[in-house]
Amino acid sequence: MVQNQIKNLPSVSEVLLKSNKYKSINKRYLSYIIKNELKIFRGLAMKGNLKQSRSKIIQEVLSVIDQLSTSSIQSVINGTGIVLHTGLGRAPVDNTVAKEIADRLSGYINLEFDLESGKRGDRQSHIEGLLSALTGAHSGMVVNNNAAAVFLALNELSEGKEVIIARGQQVEIGGSFRIPDVIKKSGCIIKEVGSTNRCHFRDYENAISKNTGLILWVHTSNYVIKGFTKEVGLNELVQLGKKKRIPVMADLGCGEIVDLTDKGIPASTMITDIVKTGAGIITFSGDKLLGGPQAGLIIGNKTLVNRLKNNPIARTVRCDKWTLAFLDEALRSFGNNGPSKHNLANMLLMSTIKSMKSRGVRILSQLSKKSIKDLSISLVESEVEVGSGSLPLERLDSMALKFNPKNISTTKLARMFRTASVPVVGYINENKFFIDLKALIPGQEKDLVEVINNL
């Protein structure tokens, strides 16, 4: 029986002959897909569990080729309510801005070329002055993400030496990356001080030795310890560092350039306040509250920043022209009265309960009666988080479409939304499916209505 099933398997060349319409796909990639799919069927045949006919197998392989013939990266509707959803690309890029930057970057650009002198330039020069001016720092640079920024700074300032850090600040970020691991991989020796919930100034003072290279302060943006706690302020650590001639580094992870608390956006950590402490190096992400692309921003003392620029690792983690262009646009979006229409914060500002309720009512009015009845759709109040470790304790008021279908499971409904012509990612809570409106980008309402009506 097993031998008969194995004989029933089509060959790679046989499937290739049926793949004429995929001439635009590289033949080696096409063969790779076919081999991988046939390997699955061979595994079933080896166990005697192959039920498909030869023609059916070819059909299924061609179906997979069809799915993989276009890029797997797609534009989706974020119905989770989490505006900085790491899995969905964090800060969304405005369509107009994306087109403007694409036009600007088509062909050749002056990435590392000084047009005035005609000599080689520095790619960091495109954002250094702007970054320094907005944050109040003496100097700045950018690398491809904040983990890279932390790694580079640690390696340059304390390789082979001890890095003093409080136990309660040894955070773990998404993907199980931990600060202690980054410290070790950067060539430094970790020296923990204090306990998980309490750390005193004397703990830092007593930990300093001839082998101390750096004092590291990490902003615990993705969790909060409450109760019987004690921590040493960054101001105090900077003074200690000056006294002992040891650089102090602050890893913010996430921070804000403009205070928007008067407009209803909960306060996070103001980057300008951290700069005022005098910390030698400060690092934070570009694609969180800054509203830009994935990037690691490094600001601080000019001498220290220049050291980082000259470290060989800086070359391995440098940004390309696309990142620099989007970051430049994000930084320039901060005008005198706050962020412009291209910034993430503007999405948060516009998404008031009143506006989201009106949007929800409009969407419901365009849905077919059958869809509303079959899927039992209603508009409800909700609460969401900002996401990506930003403002972990803050919940933002929102509105959501609630689905309570009778003839289909919420798990299957969620999958139908994710695999729709325009993928919609929502969430399940208490066996109900929700599409939150907080992160719905203006203009996506039409697509959402079409998806729901076509389910």
Structural commentary:
The chain has 455 residues and is α/β, with parallel strands linked by helices. It folds into three domains: 2-68, no CATH class; 77-87 and 347-453, Aspartate Aminotransferase, domain 1 (Alpha-Beta Complex), CATH 3.90.1150.180; 95-340, Aspartate Aminotransferase, domain 2 (3-Layer(aba) Sandwich). The longest helix has 20 residues, at 27-46. The strands form five sheets. The chain has a seven-stranded mixed β-sheet, with helices on both faces. The chain has a four-stranded antiparallel β-sheet with strand order 13-14-17-16. The chain is built from 19 helices and 17 strands. The model has no long low-confidence stretch (mean pLDDT 89).
Radius of gyration: 27 Å
Annotated CATH topology of the largest domain: Aspartate Aminotransferase, domain 2
Taking strands numbered 1, 2, ... along the chain, how are they ordered across the largest sheet? 2-10-9-8-7-3-6
Q: Characterize the overall form.
A: globular
